[in-house]
């Protein structure tokens, strides 16, 4: 399928100039942006060096900005020293000590406000307590908490003493938690008795106990924050209550200056194969990226109330909750729970109550709330909002327009921000007072970022609208440094494809005649479910770990709200009794939830007698994708070992009558033009991908 065909279904030509009232007051104007771009282009390294000197407070200034130890390893500001927490908290104590740093709202409706002083004191107390428990420079601390202020306190307490934090999303299961604790070799785990989410209590301590029940010898202590007052088992000698350990600790703790390259955190993210990758970020570079991009992209002003809805378990919660806005001296909002409790107006109510001015969320949330209608947002005063942001996946034009009209009331620019856990901070995004926006495009790279689109040979794709690999040509301070404990995987995943010539993001994209970037999706076997990456291999491993399952293959299919949904094909061990398919499917869905967390739960599971394999034993994943998407099968199936299996995979083998409902389920019901476009575009892109890019991925996969 040619690029032209893809374009003809997308056909997005609307252009939105920055609203004049916004542009008139914006921190970055047209001429400022032009200046930033020209300085960065003339001397990219010097550009970042100047920013690092002016934006960060150094205990020991660096003398060299970038030392390239040979691609793909870069060291930024390497002989400088600073402390990240001091750069976010201590630096504001004088001028903004009494300013509110954090406004918290729990799902049950409880609220708390912490000033910069109070946040600083809480961080210091915990930092002192961690030290007393033997946590020091370079030790790893896993944080497994609800989205409550203590999660940020815990992150900063680690940063303060040079410990490396690794936040594990509270929605992940004990199995996923254990894997991460083990890989990081964590010395201490910080958790809570539970958290409120979706009207339920999430039993975090219980999950932690399960995780620690085996193979976690590195963990010496568990600190438990009381949030839900749910009874928990405390293991004497190992488990300690947060309120006990900080009791009597001093509210002052001198920040430890760390080397600029000292790891600030590890954050695990899914890859196409094997176990999750511990993405390792460095202290100074990450902080610089989080801070300057918050200022540029969100046009931050002193009186803003900034709400990024992301959990600290994701990178967005690191860069745009815990670090960026605090480094910039902002007031942030944090909400613990689900957007639909008690009803789908909760987000808008929070915006009204706390006077949110900048709101940053994910397309999946926008689509979910859009489905509930315009009446809910109309009930609330959203007049304080002045800027909206989106992140995590391409935002479909229909959701973009709804966000613009119903939430932004046609007054707020929308920044569609492209970046990744690996890039540390926003890379491609509009500058809200300057860049005209187009629904569905993340527009153009930020100053200092040389993005490009290249073909299979690594040559730039210059023809407008032709797709290719999204790459970054130059190193940047907030890039990942390596994968924890697996540098080889770092090299092979991000650099090997084009012999270290550039960073390979793993996304496909195209650029239009105005130089605007349009992200088309992942090029590897990674799904993007509700704005979060899931490795198909992880889900397959979880499925085959079930005693009744012999083989599994997982692919994605378009989903109206989540962007992509998980579709699994499974083969049972031995013979399967024909009557129990429904109960097996239900059991498997629960099983995956237990193993990995609800986010990975397959929407569809099809039980089949065999997977489609080539004669050399490779699973034909392209075929499975087409089936999952309800597309016509255009692949040549003659190379299959077992061509007869195709009908069964399509669910039409024995009961042709079933065909209709199956089809209906797979095609989005929506009929509006825009709704139709997105799945079509995805289909088109994926078919093309299959043909050109994903071929190499059809490799035999090791199991278990
Ligand atoms: C992948 C990174 C970065 C924080 C959230 C996700 C996709 C992200 C956009 C966007 C189109 C996007 C990409 C990327 N993605 N933002 N604005 N437009 N796609 O972080 O889990 O590291 O996932 O999310 O595919 O590679 P992540």
Task: Describe the 3D structure.
This protein is α/β, with parallel strands linked by helices and 704 residues long. The protein folds into 3 domains: 15-450, ANL, N-terminal domain (Rossmann fold), CATH 3.40.50; 526-654, ANL, C-terminal domain (GMP Synthetase, Chain A, domain 3); 658-704, no CATH class. The chain contains 24 helices and 30 strands. The strands form 8 sheets. An 8-stranded mixed sheet has the order 12-11-8-6-7-14-15-23, with helices on both faces. A 7-stranded mixed sheet has the order 5-4-17-16-18-19-20, with helices on both faces. Strand 1 (66-68) and strand 2 (74-76) form a beta hairpin. Helix 9 packs across helix 10, helix 15 crosses helix 17 and helix 19 (536-544) crosses helix 20 (581-596). It is globular. The relative contact order is 0.10. 5'-O-[(S)-butoxy(hydroxy)phosphoryl]adenosine binds next to helix 13, strand 20, strand 24, strand 25 and strand 27.
The overall number of domains is: 3
Query: How many DSSP-defined strands?
Result: 30
Query: Helical proportion?
Result: 25-40%
Identify the CATH homologous superfamily of the largest domain: ANL, N-terminal domain
* CATH A-level architecture of the largest domain: 3-Layer(aba) Sandwich
Low-confidence stretches: 1-10, 654-704
CATH topology of the largest domain: Rossmann fold
Mean pLDDT: 89
> How much of the polypeptide forms β-strand, as a percent range?
15-25%
Helical stretch tally = 24
Compute the gyration radius: what is it? 25 Å
What is the SS-derived class? Answer: alpha/beta
Biggest sheet: strands side by side, in what order? Answer: 12-11-8-6-7-14-15-23
Shape: globular
The ligands bound in this entry are: 5'-O-[(S)-butoxy(hydroxy)phosphoryl]adenosine
CATH domain class name of the largest domain: Alpha Beta
Cα end-to-end separation: 36 Å
């Amino acid at each position: 399928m040619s690029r032209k065909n893809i374009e003809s279904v997308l056909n997005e030509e609307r252009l939105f100039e920055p609203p004049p009232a916004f542009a008139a007051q914006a921190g970055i104007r047209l001429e400022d942006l032009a200046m930033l771009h020209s300085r960065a282009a003339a001397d990219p390294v010097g550009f970042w060096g100047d920013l690092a000197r002016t934006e960060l407070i150094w205990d020991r200034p660096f003398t060299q900005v970038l030392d390239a130890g040979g691609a793909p390893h870069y060291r930024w500001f390497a002989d400088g020293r600073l402390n990240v927490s001091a750069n976010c908290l201590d630096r504001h104590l004088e001028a903004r000590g009494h300013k509110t740093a954090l406004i918290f709202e729990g799902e049950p409706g409880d609220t708390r406000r912490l000033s910069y002083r109070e946040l600083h004191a809480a961080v210091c107390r915990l930092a002192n307590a961690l030290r007393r428990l033997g946590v020091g420079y370079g030790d790893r601390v896993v944080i497994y908490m609800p989205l409550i202020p203590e999660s940020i306190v815990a992150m900063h307490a680690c940063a303060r003493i040079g410990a490396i934090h690794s936040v594990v999303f509270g929605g992940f299961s004990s199995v996923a938690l254990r894997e991460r604790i083990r890989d990081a070799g964590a010395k201490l785990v910080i958790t809570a008795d539970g958290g409120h989410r979706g009207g339920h209590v999430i039993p975090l301590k219980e999950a932690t106990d399960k995780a620690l029940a085996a193979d976690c010898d590195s963990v010496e202590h568990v600190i438990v924050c009381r949030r839900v007052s749910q009874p928990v088992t405390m293991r004497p000698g190992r488990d300690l209550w947060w309120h006990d350990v900080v009791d009597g600790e001093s509210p002052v703790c001198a920040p430890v200056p760390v080397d600029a390259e000292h790891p600030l955190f590890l954050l695990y993210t899914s890859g196409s194969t094997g176990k999750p990758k511990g993405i390792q970020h460095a202290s100074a570079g990450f902080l610089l990226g989080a801070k300057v991009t918050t200022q540029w992209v969100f046009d931050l002003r002193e009186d803003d109330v900034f709400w990024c809805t992301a959990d600290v378990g994701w990178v967005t919660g690191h860069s745009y909750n815990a670090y960026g806005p605090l480094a910039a001296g902002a007031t942030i909002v944090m909400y613990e729970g689900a957007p639909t409790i008690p009803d789908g107006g909760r987000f808008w109510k929070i915006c009204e109550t706390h006077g949110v001015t900048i709101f940053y969320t994910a397309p999946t949330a926008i689509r979910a709330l859009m489905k509930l209608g315009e009446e809910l947002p109309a009930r609330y005063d959203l007049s304080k909002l002045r800027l909206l942001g989106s992140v995590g996946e391409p935002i479909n034009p229909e959701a973009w327009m709804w966000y613009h009209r119903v939430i932004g009331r046609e007054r707020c620019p929308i920044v569609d921000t492209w970046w990744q856990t690996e890039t540390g901070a926003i890379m491609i995004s509009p500058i809200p007072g300057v860049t005209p926006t187009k629904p569905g495009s993340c527009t153009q790279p930020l100053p200092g970022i040389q993005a490009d689109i290249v073909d299979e040979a690594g040559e730039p794709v210059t023809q407008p609208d032709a797709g290719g690999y999204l790459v970054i040509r130059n190193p940047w301070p907030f890039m990942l440094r390596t994968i924890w404990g697996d540098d080889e995987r770092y090299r092979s995943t991000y650099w090997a494809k084009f012999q270290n010539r550039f960073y390979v993001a793993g996304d496909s994209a195209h650029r239009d005649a105005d130089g605007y970037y349009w992200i088309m999706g992942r090029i590897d076997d990674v799904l993007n479910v509700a704005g979060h990456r899931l490795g198909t291999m992880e889900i397959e491993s979880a499925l085959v770990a079930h005693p009744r399952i012999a083989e599994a293959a997982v692919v994605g299919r378009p989903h109206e709200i989540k962007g992509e949904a998980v579709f699994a094909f499974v083969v049972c061990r031995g013979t399967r009794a024909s009557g129990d398919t429904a109960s097996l499917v239900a059991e498997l869905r629960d099983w995956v939830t237990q193993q990995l967390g609800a986010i990975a739960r397959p929407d569809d599971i099809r039980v089949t007698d065999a997977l489609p394999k080539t004669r050399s034993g490779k699973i034909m994943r392209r075929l499975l994708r087409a089936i999952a998407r309800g597309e016509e099968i255009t692949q040549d199936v003659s190379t299959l070992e077992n061509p007869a299996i195709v009908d069964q995979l399509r669910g039409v083998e024995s009961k042709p009558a079933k065909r209709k409902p199956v089809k209906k389920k797979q095609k989005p019901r929506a009929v509006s033009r825009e709704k139709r476009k997105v799945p079509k575009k995805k289909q088109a892109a994926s078919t093309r991908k299959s043909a050109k890019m994903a071929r190499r991925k059809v490799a035999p996969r090791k199991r278990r």
